[in-house]
Each structure stands twice: as C-alpha cells, then as structure tokens.
Amino acid sequence: MQRAARTTDEVLGASAIRAQHSRLILNLLWREREISRAELARRTSLSRSTVSAIVTELLSTGLVEETRAGISSGGRRPIILEFQDQASFIVGIELGATHVSCVLTDLRCKVRASWSAPAPVRDDPDVALEKMTMAVRSVLDADGVDLSRVLGIGVAVPSPVDDERPGELLPLVAPKWEGYNIATHLRDDFGRPVFLDNDANLGALAELWWGAGCSSGDLAFIKVATGIGAGFTINRRIFRGSRGIAGEIGHTSIDPNGPLCVCGLHGCLTTFIGTPALLERAEAQLRDSGSNRPPPQNIDDLVNAALEGDPSSVEMIRYAGKKLGIGIANMLNLLNPRTVVLGGGIARAGDLLLDAVHETIRSLSLPASISNTEIKTTGLSEWGIALGAATLALETALHTPSLFPAVSKGAPS
For the chain, which end, N or C, has fewer CB atoms within 10 Å of the first or last residue's CB respectively? Predict the structure, then answer.
C-alpha cells in the first residue's frame, strides 16, 4: 500500500511539473510571438525533448503554428513557431454605475468589436443583467465569432469584490444587488468561464499591460466617475487587500464635517467630486452667478466646456483636481507608487486637471514620496476598463492554459 501511495504522489508531482513547463513555454511564446524550439529550450533551460513534446501538444490546440524557416547558425534552419492571436477570443465588460460597455478582443487584447449603452446599473439589476447579455451577443455577432471560440468573459464592476462572495457586488455599495450574482448569470447564459473584479483594479491591469504602466510594476490607477476607486499593482500584481477592499480612495474622508456619503461616513472624496456631486456644484455655481448658460448634463459637457475655455467650467475642473489631490497625496505618502494614472470621463481635461492635482500634492506630500512619481491621465481609449476585464481573462488563461478552448484546424476567424 505504501508503494502505491508513493507512486501516486510521484505521478501527481510529474503532472504538476509538466503543467508548469507547459505554462512556461506558452507564456514565452505569447510574449515573443515568434520563436524556435531551440530558442525555447535555451530560454527555459528545459531539454529539447521536453520542449518538443510540449510544442507538439500546443500545435494540436491551434494556439501555435509553424510558420517559416528561420536563419541557421550552422546546420539545419530552425522552424519558427508563432503564437496565434486569433485562435480564440475574449469578451470584456465594464459595468459602470450608469452604463454597460463591452468589447470583443483577440488574444493580444486588440479590440475587434465594441458596444455601449446607458443603463440604470446601480438601481435596476435586472435591466443591467439584460444589457450585459445583449452586449455579449452584440459584439459576438458584429465580428461573426462563435461562442465556442470564446476563452471567457471578464467583468469590471463598480464595487469591491470579495473572494468569499464571488460574482456579487458589495451590498453596502450597491444595496439593490443583494441576492444577484453576475458570474452565475453570465455562465448560465453563455456557458463560458467568467472572471470578475473591481473596475479600478482592472483599469490598473489594463494600464500595466497596455498603457502607462508597461515600464513600471508599481502603479496606481484612479477612476473618477459616479464613484471614485483606485486600483494598485505592486511588483506587477494587483493588490486587493484581505477582503478585496483595497483602493476605496473615494471613501477616504477629507472632511469629517462634510456631506453624508452612501457608505455612512461623512466627507468622503466621492461626496465632493463624484460625478453627481460635481454636476450639482456646477449647476449651483451657474445659478449663483446669474449665468443663462445651461448647466452640464454629464461630465463630458463639463469637460468640453472647460476645454473650450469657459471660466466657470475651468474652475470646476480645478476644484475637482484640488480635492482629488488630497486623496492622492495621502496615497503617495502611504504607498509611494512609481506611476499614478487618472481615468474616467474627467481625465479628458488633461493638464487642467493635472495642474490642480500637482498644486495640492506638492503642499501635502513628503518630497521623497513624490520625487520619482509620475502622475498622468490615461492614454487608453474609452474602452480601457472593459479592456482590463478582457486582460483579466487572458492573464488567468496564460497561468492556466487548460482554459484556452481547443481550436479545430480551419475554423473561421
């Protein structure tokens, strides 16, 4: 009996090692795009026979193809292997407080189709879930992709995500979502794996892989929208905290005597510069000034007016930047990230916003905590958060290659 147990352990150990080697080779193929078997062996320090066996398996999945002969350094010319970005596809969804956005990407997270529509997400879960289903079907139909070729569905949500309640929104932040499970809904509708995380975390992930954080593993992404959230990456990994609550910078109290927040605290950053609060302040300012100009109906109206030079709108953007600077200054003193990226609709204000942020943090931060920190607005498109959701699915699959769907030869792209 003892010998049988040892044999089983040995088999399990060999299987785990094989999976580790496969993951190592697949990730190297993905990063390099094109590489030979010999170079794989050299870069991974694995034997050529091990590399050859794993590559043979990958060739059968459609993730890798032999494309051409490389340059010989003596002897036979090597066959170049190429990772197939179109072997399968990913759906990324951004569930905002007032909208649903969705993208379909390839395995390099290049957007192939997109869809967006307003939705009362915070107040009507049933409508929001219906819109999510509609969004997924729309992007698949737009690009003619069969569901069987979808790796998975990533979802960015405006709420912390607790590992003990996967797929659910935090009731304190979204009380009307009590009893709803987004992951279960999407799995039931589409039968594909679902990966879910906080929207700011996935904004940080998108910046880390495709944007401002490519050269830095320590990054903070701050999304300023209806609510305000921050996502952190440390050593190129998302930092979520013990219960997924890390990054709730919007619920940092900057004035204990300030307005009551939905979270039950007073003077949270969100109560000053979350979109509803900012628009309400802009309207009151116009009313008090006696201006006949119509108040902004959304953050785009406010930013557009500021960029056109409207004095009251410029003042509102600077007000937002100064308040945001308080939260950022505290964050810099605590975490000292290399890069801070600002996202959300207000980020389009660019230097109007950044100049006010810098003014504040210079007066509130330790000089050493800001001397090497770069603060910028996002360079990713309006689909950045949805792209981060797709990236979560890709990152998970590269760590667990069995998630990639098998692709039959000749399948349409």
Answer: N
The CB-side HSE value for 108 (13 A sphere, CA atoms) comes to 11
**Placement of tokens 């997400």 in the chain:** 121
Give the separation between CA 262 and CA 245, rounded to whole angstroms. Answer: 16
pLDDT for the residue 413: 45
Nearest to 32 by CA among 22, 43, 48, 21: 43
The band of 412, judged by pLDDT with boundaries at 50, 70 and 90, is: very low
Going from the C-alpha of 105 to that of each of 82, 128, 182, 187, 349, the distances in angstroms are: 19, 22, 21, 19, 28
pTM to 2 decimal places = 0.90
- Of the two residues 219 and 291, the one the predictor is more confident about is 219
Closest to 96 (Cα-Cα) out of 347, 307, 306, 274: 274
Return the structure tokens found at 277. Answer: 């609060």
Q: What six digits make up the tokens of 379?
A: 């360079």
Q: What Rg, from alpha-carbon coordinates, does the chain have?
A: 24
**CB–CB of 87/62 below 8 Å?**
yes
Q: Give the whole-number percent of the chain exceeding pLDDT 70.
A: 94
pLDDT band at 7 (very low <50, low <70, confident <90, very high): low
Mean pLDDT over each residue of the chain, to the nearest integer? 90
User: H helices within 275-310, ranges in order?
Assistant: 275-289, 299-307
Confidence class of residue 213 from pLDDT cuts 50, 70 and 90? confident
How many CB atoms are closer than 10 A to CB 202?
31
Per-residue DSSP letters for 68-111? EE---SSSSPPEEEEE-TTSSEEEEEEE-SSEEEEEEE-TT--E
Contact 120, 108 (CB under 8 A): no
Query: Tokens in use for 112?
Result: 């192939």
Give CA–CA dist 200/221, Å, rounded.
6
